Amino acid sequence: MRHTDRVTAPAPPSAPNVLETQLGASAVTTKAADSASWWRIDTTPDIVRSLAVFTVLATVVAGVLGWFLADQLTDNTVRLADSTGEVLVVNQQVQASFAEAHAAAVSVHLAGPAGNREQRRIYESAIERAASGLERVAASVGDDPESHAALEQVAALTTRYVSLVESARSSAIAGDASGNAVLAEAGQVTGTQISPQVDLVTRRFQTKLADETGTAGFVVTFVIFVALLVLLGLGQFWLFQRFHRIVNVPLLLASLAVVAWLIYSGSAYFTQRQAFATADDDAYQSIEASGDLLDLAFTHRAAENAAVLGGASSVDSVVMDDASATETRLTLLEQGADSFREQALVQEVRIRWDRYVNQSRAIEAALAAGDVAQAERVTSGTANDAFNAFNATAEALLLDNRQQFFAEVDYAVDLVRWLRWVIIAVTIAVAVLAWWGYSMRLREYQ
Fold it and tell me: Which residue from 196, 245, 229 is spatially nearest to 95, judged by alpha carbons?
């Protein structure tokens, strides 16, 4: 009998187990449901939880944006006090110091070889004040290459001016008449070279003053927190409709915290704006008017000195030819005077200006008559005294307005100094209270 190998056929696949299939499908469904539960909002607890998360995130975003905007507002205000305002005010004093210095230098020169010790002392003191003022301005301009370049040029020109004055003085002592031309050149240095550079810095910082007193940052911050208040109110209303509870105390406290911040910040901001307005309208406008008046006086005084030193027959005077320019400045000063002291100073400035104008007319009359010696005597004597008295009174008015300007600016700094930290405190409080308020309703489902 033949032995044949038996081939065993593979067993047919077994039928699927119905129970296992049902369990697997159930597991897949459960996993899908679990993953979907992270984004599906189809029950009241899901909605409450989502509102809580959204409100907290919105509060944090509002707080961060508000902090940066408040920080910018505070920095601008501090910069105005420490830099911009200092530059604008001190520049006017620098101009006045150069005017006083040159008037005194001319008087010393016209006194001849003997000189004039008192006027020499005034000249040296005025030059020291101008140099000190320039150092203060240079330290305050910050990151402004154009202003630094202008101030460097002023420093170099000041050195040249002093050198010319000393050269003219040496010529006077030696009895050399060429000193007149040298001193006239010194007057041109201060009037046509130094003054325009100082004015350039002033104009640049006047632009910065407008930028630093802008309102955009605070308005945006205010709108952001108003939107947050609306969000809290809508949440409160939804909870009332769904749970029939009149008040959710934590959300109410969060809303009150936002309202308190809006009142505080709004009050601080609008009071700050008023302080800025006072600093600008009542102080800086007067400072500008005083500076303009001093510029006009210096321009005329320089032309007058140049005419006397050169033996001219008349004075090329922008002041006398355009009396309305000085009258406009004096009127602005009178309108801006908001205290008895300032009003008295303005009247004193007007009186002393009129006295100087009378002396200047006497110099013009002497030159027109060909009496140069008389013109020199008036220039170095009564006209110089009148000009110095006017300049000193104008500087006193500058100082008074400077004090008022910085008092108002410092007050504005104090008003916004705490805005940033109050925003942080309010943000934390609102976020905690909002989460607490929604969590109270979530616990009702547990």
Answer: 196
The share of the chain scoring above pLDDT 90, in percent, equals 18
* Residue 131: predicted pLDDT: 92
CA max distance for the chain: 167
Inter-residue contact 388 to 104 (CB < 8 Å): yes
The structure tokens 């070889």 sit at 113
Q: Give the span between the Cα atoms of 367 and 350, in whole angstroms.
A: 26
SS (H, E, C) the chain: CCCCCCCCCCCCCCCCCHHHHHHHHHHHHHHHHHHHCCCCCCCHHHHHHHHHHHHHHHHHHHHHHHHHHHHHHHHHHHHHHHHHHHHHHHHHHHHHHHHHHHHHHHHHHHCHHHCCHHHHHHHHHHHHHHHHHHHHHHHHCCCCHHHHHHHHHHHHHHHHHHHHHHHHHHHHHCCCCCHHHHHHHHHHHHHHHHHHHHHHHHHHHHHHHHHHCCCHHHHHHHHHHHHHHHHHHHHHHHHHHHHCCCCCHHHHHHHHHHHHHHHHHHHHHHHHHHHHHHHHHHHHHHHHHHHHHHHHHHHHHHHHHHHHHHCCCCCCCHHHHCHHHHHHHHHHHHHHCCCHHHHHHHHHHHHHHHHHHHHHHHHHHHHHCCCHHHHHHHHHCHHHHHHHHHHHHHHHHHHHHHHHHHHHHHHHHHHHCCHHHHHHHHHHHHHHHHHHHHHHHHHHHC
Length in residues, the chain: 446
CB 145 within 8 A of CB 205: no
Place 42 in a pLDDT band, splitting at 50, 70 and 90: low
Q: What is the average pLDDT across 46-66?
A: 89
Look up residue 342 and give its two tokens.
């300032």
- Residues 286 and 336: beta-carbon distance below 8 Å: yes
Q: In the chain, what is the straight-line distance between the N-terminal and C-terminal CA atoms, in Å? A: 83
How far is the C-alpha of 326 from the C-alpha of 96, rounded, in Å? Answer: 16
Rg (CA), the chain: 39
Average pLDDT, the chain: 80
- pLDDT tens by residue, 119-168: 889 899 989 999 999 999 998 888 889 999 999 999 999 999 999 999 99
Number of CB atoms found within 10 A of residue 170's CB = 12
Phi, psi (rounded to 5 degrees) for 213: -105, 20
